[in-house]
Amino acid sequence: MASYLELDGISKKYGDKAILRKLNAAFDEGDLVAIVGPSGVGKTTLLRIIDRLEEPDSGEVSFRGEPYSRLSAKAVQKRIGMVFQNPVVFNASVFNNVAYSLRFRGVASEELKNRVLSILRLLKLDSLSERSALTLSGGEAQRVSLARAMVYSPELLLLDEPTANLDPHNVSIIEDALMECNRENRTTTIIVTHNIFQAKRIAKKVAFLLDGELIDYSAVEEFFSSPKDPRTTSFIKGDMVY
Amino acid sequence: MGGFEFLIDGFLKALQLISSGDPLIATITLLSLRVSVTATLLGAIFGIPTGFLIARKDFIGKSMITTVVNTAMGLPPVVVGLVIYLMLSSFGPLGFLKLLYTPEAMIIAQTVLTFPIACGITISVVMSLNPKLKETLVSLGAPGIWEALILLNESRLGLITAIITAFGGAISEVGAIMMVGGNLGGFTQALTTSIMLYTNMGDFDTAIALGIILLMIAFGVNLFLTLLQSRSKIKRTV
Ligand SMILES: Nc1ncnc2c1ncn2[C@@H]1O[C@H](COP(=O)(O)OP(=O)(O)OP(=O)(O)O)[C@@H](O)[C@H]1O
Ligand SMILES: [Mg+2]
How many Å lie between the alpha carbon of B237 and the closest alpha carbon of chain A? Predict the structure, then answer.
C-alpha cells in the first residue's frame, strides 16, 4: 500500500550544484518526523518541493496515493500547512492574520470565530487577539505563523525551523502545541530542525539529510541509540565538520 | 497706491469674497472639485488594478509597459487636452457624443492624466512588497482574489499616496481642462482656468480669492497625507 506521503527519486539542482539526489522517503499518516542535517544541505528546499513552491528537476511526490503531476499546485497547497523559516505576518490584527486562512476556505461567522479562538488559545495568543501583528515580538509572530497554518487542520503540516532563535518559553509553547495537535488530531507533521535535542523531545521518527539523500531514517530511539550510518553517529555527537 | 498695498488690498477683498460665500466662487470651486475628484476616482479605479496586474504577472514586454506608464505619469496636460479635443470635436471620431466644452470632457481629460499616476505608483509599491508575503499567501492556499486584496492592503499607504498625488495633479492642472472645457462661465469654469481668465480681465480680487482656495485645497490634501504617514510610522515590521 502506498504511504501517506511518498517522495520518489527527487532531484534538485541550483545551477551546477546538486542539492537533492534521487531522494526517496515515505511518511505515514499521523507521523511526526524530524528532518535534521547541517546548514545548507537542502532541508528548506525539500519542504518547498513538498509544498509545491518549487518543482523538482526529476522524481515524483505522491500525496495520499495521488501523484503531484495529477494535482494542481493550488489544490495541494490548500491541504498542506507550511511554516517558513523566517515568517512574515500580515498588516492586520492577530485574530485576522489567523482568520484569513479560514476565509480562504469559505469558513465564516461563528465557526470561524470558534476555530480561530481555539487555536489562539493553544498557542497562548488569546490575550493578543486584537493587537496589530506588526507590533508582536519575534516569538509571538512565530506563533501567529504557526496558528495560521494549523487553524485549517491541514492534512500535512510542514515546519521549517519553527523555534530557531526563540527562548525556552516560546519553544515549549510551540513544541507542546505541535505534539498536542499530532496526538489529538493525528496531524501528520514534518519538522525541520537543526536541534537534535528538539528532535529527541518531540519526534516519533528522525531523518538525517546529507549529500542530497536521507542517509538515515528511523524511529527516534533507534536513531539516537543505534544509528546505521557512521556519519549519523558523528552528527549526533556534534563533531561533524561540514 | 503702492505695489504692496495693492497686493494687500487685493488679498483682503479676496478674503471678503470667500467669507461672504460669493456664489460665483462657490460654483467654480464645486465644479473644480467635482471634475478632479471624479477624475481621480476613475483614475484609481482603473489604474490601481491595472498597476497591480502589471506588477504581479510575469509577461513579455513587462518592463516596456512599465516604462510607458512611468513616462505617461509626466504627460503634458496641454498635449492631453489637444488629443482629447481632437477626439471630441465635431469632426473627430467621438464627435457624435457632443461632449466638447462640458464638465464630462474635462473629467475624461483629467482621467487620462490621473490613470498613469495611479497605475505607475501602484506598480512600484506592489513590486517593492516583501516577496515572502506573496509566497506565504500561496502556501496558505489563498484564492487569487484574496491574494490581491491582502497584497493591496499591505500596500495601502503607497496607494493612498498614489491617489492623493493624482488628485494634486488634477486639481492644479490647467492646460487640459482649458482646451476641452473652454472655461465657459458658470458651466466649465474651474479654479485654475478662472484664475487665468480673471487675471487677464484685471479682476485681481476674484483671481486671488480663487488662488487662496486652490492653495487651501492643496495644503489640506497634503496635510492629510502627512498625518496618515506619521500615524503609520508607529507600526514596525518584525
Ligand atoms: N533559489 C536558489 N538559487 C540558488 N541556490 C539556492 C536557492 N535556494 C537555495 N539554494 C542553495 O541550496 C542549498 C540548500 O538550501 P536550503 O535552504 O534548502 O538549505 P537548508 O538545509 O534549509 O539550510 P539551513 O539549515 O541553513 O536553513 C544552499 O546552498 C542554498 O544556498
Ligand atoms: Mg533552511
Answer: 5
